[in-house]
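Box 3.1 A note on notation
Throughout this textbook, protein chains are presented in two layers. The first layer is the amino acid sequence; the second is a token string describing backbone geometry. Keep the layers aligned when reading.
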Amino acid sequence: MNWTFQQRKLWDELKENRAMAEKRIVRATYEDLASIDVMFGDCKEYLESRGILQWDETYPNREYFEKALEGEEIFILKMDGQILGTMVLDEWQAPEWSEAGWTELNGKPLILHSFCVHPSSQGGGYGGTMLQFAEEFARQQGYSALRLDAYSGNESAVKFYEKRGYRKTGEVIMGQKRPGHQLYYCYEKLF
């Protein structure tokens, strides 16, 4: 493909922005909490407008994020002072996950929760950057796998994880979720 000078320049700027984003994934602080709340509110609205009811007022909510902040478990992707994405990395696994058919049984998995990129920033490679960060963080901390679940009705998320080498290990019913929106796929990537 023959690119014009301006196309090449734009491409180089996009690559530079991605590199900057990689350097800006940090642990969230209490000063970030209000922005995290707003971002998740925007994400919930965006998902609901597409019929994806994976999140509600009980999860994720401010209390959940405050607890994650106490444990220094919430990470944000921040660029130019704005939070573009967030994720929680911890060791907690939902009781329903006991039926997931995990491959890694002897090691210590790290769990990815509340993974979100603001709707206005989706499609810019930020989700991939964040997931790559989570994987590297898990490796550096001595974890043997990264686990997560994804709502079965969120086809974009399902494709996102599968494209990045996550193996579906099973399906679970999250009974606390709204009827018709309770089936979740469990994914795992071994290190």
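The longest strand covers residues 82-90. The first helix runs from residue 5 to 23.
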